[in-house]
Every structure is written in structure tokens, then in C-alpha cells.
Amino acid sequence: MPEHFSCRLISVLLTAFILATLYWKLNDSPKGTQGQLSFLRNCLQCLSPLAYFLAHSLVSIPNLIILSLAFSATTFWAVGLHGGLSGFFFFFIIIFTSFWAATAYIAFATGFVSDSIVAFTIVVSTFGYFSLYSGFYIACQEIPPFWIWFHYPSLVKYPYQAVLQSEYEDPAECFVRGVQVLDNTPFVNLPVAVKLNMLQCMSSATGANITSSTCVIDGMKLMEQEGVTDIS
């Protein structure tokens, strides 16, 4: 029904608009990088409840394509993600497959339960577990061995790792340089001269020459911190 699709499109665009304005034009500084990571987490988390809403009307693939394109176009350039048109296309594909996988899972789960309230509870609960064990809140290497199995069937793990690799795999990109290593510490408000002295002390302690232009964290190190190293 056209009115149903219009309602779904408005819902997707509203979510995209909120995320786009909340994370507007982030840069490659430590603060901007943390904002990008937060956006990518929230982006995929917001798609799960939207997918439940979409699945109720047996959304067709053409509709999913339009909705995914609307969401991607609203957020990709507004947030300041990298990759140009090829990066945008990859982001769109990930958003589309996330919608598709979520709606397929919902259709699968609700096929076993006739009561809509019970089905909703099951779906919301399992999506919560998927997010919890996807790597958002706790790194893969820190998940207890008796729960690590839930990390791998998570519907959120794979799109999350895909967008992180697309965003941070360029070895030429640097996300923390020189004194920026102190940006997310209690020393962030110290004078620059003091920070440079601290870098000299760090150089002496580590045996590495860390200057104001030295790249401290590149994309690969950032993905290692996020635990995004187990799939290509």
C-alpha cells in the first residue's frame, strides 16, 4: 500500500536525519573518529527496530532498496564518511543487507509464534543480544568463553565490521597524530608546549621518536582496538 510505504519512508528518513544532524561533519581527529564509531554503532542499532516495523508489511526488495538508499544518502556525506562514491555504494549495500537480514530473521522468528506480542518480545530480546555480543559494548577478545559463541551468529557483527573496514582500511589515513594522543585523557587541556614535553618523555620511555607529526594510531590499529580483525 502506498500510504504504508510512505509511513515507512518517513520513519527511515527521520531516523537518518536525527543521526546525520547528531554526527554532523566529523573529521579525522580523535574526537571525530570516536564520533564516527559512535555513529556506525547507533546506525546499525537503529536499523533493527526499524526492520521489525518494516517486516510487518512483508517489505519487498525494491522497497528495501529505496529505504536503504534514502537512509544512506541522508547520512553518508552529512556525517563525513570516507570513500567517495565507491564508499557510499558499499555503505548502501551494507545498510540494504542489514535491512534484508533483519526482516528475514523477523519473518523466520515470527513464523514459529502466532502471538504477535510474544513474537515481538522474542525478536527484540534476541536483537538486544546480537548488539551486546557484536563487539559494540565489549571487544570480542573480552567476551567470556562461555558466551563467545553468541558473537558469531550476531546479525550486527558483520555489517558493523564491514563498515569499519571500509572506513578505516586505508593505510595512508591517520586518526591520532602527535599530541592528539592526549585528547581523550585528563591532559587534554594542558598547553601545547607541555604536551610536546610529554611526547619527548614518552619517546625516551618507549625508544620511539614521537613528534607532533608522528602517526600514533592509523586505521589498522584502530580496528585492532575495536576487535575488527577476524574477517576480511
TrEMBL record:
| Top-level lineage group | Eukaryota
User: What GO molecular function terms would the record report?
Assistant: ABC-type transporter activity
Membrane-spanning intervals of the chain: 6-26, 61-81, 88-111, 117-140
What this protein is called in its record is: ABC-2 type transporter transmembrane domain-containing protein
Task: Enumerate the subcellular locations listed in this protein's record, separating them with semicolons.
Answer: Membrane
Q: Which GO terms describe its cellular component?
A: membrane
Organism of provenance? Dipteronia sinensis
Query: Which InterPro entries does this UniProt record tie to the protein?
Result: ABC2_TM (IPR013525), ABCG_transporters (IPR050352)
Fetch the Pfam families from UniProt: ABC2_membrane (PF01061)
Q: Provide the ABC-2 type transporter transmembrane domain boundaries.
A: 48-168
Q: Report how it sits in the membrane.
A: Multi-pass membrane protein
Which keywords annotate this record? Membrane, Transmembrane, Transmembrane helix, Transport
